[in-house]
Structures are given as structure tokens and as C-alpha cells.
């Protein structure tokens, strides 16, 4: 999927299907292919799935933060000519989706979060990738999942390359600090967008109590659990994730 990117001006993205637009926002260390299950399923069910490559490492350092990425998403939605969209985000992508929903509610028809930061994320507070230490990076990658085998050599290599690129590492740390700074606990009760929370019951990065707090603070939220599942439910249990998400969309008439 990453090799089939459409490149138009400053945007790189992949898309499939026709119908209601679902914009998918990947995480800090997550590639577009993490959402392969969503990308394959929803175009067959009346949705247009669009996955942009977020400019995590290409924007000016002053625009390397959650607020600026949310503005970038808004501009991308306008560029694509969409009136209103459903945003789906994992980890940092969920945080960006949340900030977008706060800042640009007129662009939103629904919000789906899985393992979202915005309240708390374990990885943001501890030692971020150590350069050159492949074993450490492998352990950290495996901790993201309930089944460590999901952390393939290819995935570990991607994280390793970021950790060993000095500029990308600086920007990764800048984004991590921005995520802590943009805590959204006070904003959530004022956000009236219909929100679907799909959470791994064994998520170690954004633990189950984080999902409970999101559910408590967001006025119009529904919370669903996937058992034997870590931080990236759409990767570990794609069929179950798609089933929950699709049923919720139908229930909300989205």
C-alpha cells in the first residue's frame, strides 16, 4: 500500500471506493499498511477510504505538533473536496483526529478512535528509541501488541530506521512532547461528535483505564473491547475491528 501512494502537490495518500469518506490517520511509528484490513473492507460497503501520509517528519519544526497536524488534516479534507468526513485514528493519529474534532467540528460527521493518545500514553513518558539498539527497539515494538509475532522484522526495521535518523528522532521527541502538552481532558466534555472507541483489552501503551476515561469524558461515545489485543486493534484483529466499526457506523446512520 505504501508503494501505491498518489502524489499531488504536498499530499501523499492512497484511496479506494466511493461513498461516505473515511479519513484514516496513522500513528507516530505506524505505516499506512497498518490499516490494510480497513482499506480492503470498507470500500466494498459504500465508503471511500482515504489514508494520507501525515507530514510527521517533513514540516518545519514549529509545525511539528498535534495542533499543526490537525490543521494539515483540515486542509487535506478541503483539498479533496469533502464536505464532512468520518475520522479514524490510532495512537497519535487518534490524538490528531480528536484535536481536529475540537477545532473543526463542522468538518466532522463521526470519530473512531483506537489506542488513541490525548489523555495518556505510556511510550510518551519513558525512554524513547535508543539509537543503534536494535534489541531494545524490538522489545518496544513487541510490547505494542498482545501477540509479539505481529512485530515483524520489517516493522522493527522501520522503527529502527527512524531511531537512527537524527532529524526524525528529534521530530519524534518533539511530537511526543507536543502530545503530552496537548492533553485533551478539559476539551472532551464539550465535544459532541459521535465517537466509537475500539480498544485492545491488553493495550500497554494506552491502557484500558484510558479508554474508560475517554468514554466517561466524551458525551456521545460508545466503547467496545477486543480481547487478547494490544495497542493496534486494527492490525491484530482486523476482522473483529471491521465488524465493530461497521455495526457502529450503521447504528449511527453514517
Question: Could you characterize the architecture of this molecule?
Answer:
It is a single chain. This protein has 254 residues and is an alpha/beta fold. The chain contains 10 helices and 8 strands. The protein has helices spanning 36-41, 66-80, 92-103, 122-125, 134-143, 153-163, 166-181, 208-217, 233-236, 238-251, and strands at residues 6-8, 11-16, 20-25, 47-52, 85-90, 108-114, 195-200, 221-226. An 8-stranded mixed beta sheet has the order 1-2-4-3-5-6-7-8, with helices on both faces. Helix 2 crosses helix 3 (92-103). The two termini are 26 Å apart. The model has no long low-confidence stretch (mean pLDDT 91).
Low-confidence stretches: none
Radius of gyration: 17 Å
In what range is the share of β-strand residues? 15-25%
Whole-number mean pLDDT: 91
In whole angstroms, the N-to-C terminal distance is 26 Å
Structural class per helix/strand content?
A: alpha/beta
Summarize the helices and strands and which ones pair or pack.
Layout: E1 6-8, E2 11-16, E3 20-25, H1 36-41, E4 47-52, H2 66-80, E5 85-90, H3 92-103, E6 108-114, H4 122-125, H5 134-143, H6 153-163, H7 166-181, E7 195-200, H8 208-217, E8 221-226, H9 233-236, H10 238-251
Parallel strand pairs: 3-4, 3-5, 5-6, 6-7, 7-8
Antiparallel strand pairs: 1-2, 2-4
Helix pairs in contact: 2-3, 5-6
Amino acid at each position: 500500500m505504501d508503494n501505491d501512494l498518489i502524489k499531488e502537490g504536498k499530499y501523499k495518500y492512497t484511496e479506494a471506493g466511493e461513498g461516505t469518506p473515511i479519513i484514516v490517520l496513522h500513528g507516530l511509528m505506524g505505516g499506512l499498511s497498518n490499516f490494510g484490513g480497513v482499506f480492503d473492507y470498507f470500500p466494498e460497503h459504500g465508503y471511500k477510504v482515504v489514508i494520507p501520509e501525515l507530514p510527521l517528519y517533513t514540516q518545519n519544526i514549529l509545525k511539528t505538533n498535534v495542533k499543526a497536524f490537525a490543521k494539515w488534516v483540515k486542509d487535506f479534507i478541503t483539498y479533496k473536496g469533502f464536505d464532512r468526513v468520518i475520522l479514524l485514528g490510532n495512537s497519535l493519529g487518534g490524538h490528531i483526529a480528536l484535536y481536529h474534532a475540537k477545532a473543526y467540528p463542522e468538518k466532522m460527521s463521526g470519530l473512531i478512535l483506537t489506542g488513541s493518545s490525548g489523555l495518556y500514553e505510556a511510550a510518551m513518558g519513558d525512554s524513547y528509541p535508543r539509537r543503534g539498539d536494535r534489541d531494545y527497539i524490538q522489545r518496544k515494538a513487541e510490547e505494542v501488541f498482545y501477540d509479539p509475532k505481529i512485530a515483524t522484522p520489517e516493522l522493527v526495521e522501520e522503527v529502527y530506521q527512524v531511531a537512527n535518523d537524527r532529524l526524525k528522532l528529534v521530530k519524534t521527541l518533539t511530537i511526543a512532547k507536543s502530545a503530552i502538552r496537548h492533553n485533551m481532558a478539559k476539551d472532551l466534555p464539550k465535544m459532541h461528535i459521535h465517537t466509537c472507541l475500539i480498544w485492545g483489552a491488553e493495550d500497554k501503551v494506552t491502557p484500558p483505564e484510558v479508554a474508560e476515561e475517554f468514554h466517561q469524558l466524551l458525551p456521545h461515545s460508545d466503547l467496545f473491547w477486543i480481547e487478547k489485543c494490544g495497542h493496534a486493534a486494527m492490525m491484530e484483529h482486523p476482522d473483529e475491528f471491521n465488524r465493530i466499526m461497521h455495526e457502529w457506523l450503521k447504528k449511527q446512520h453514517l
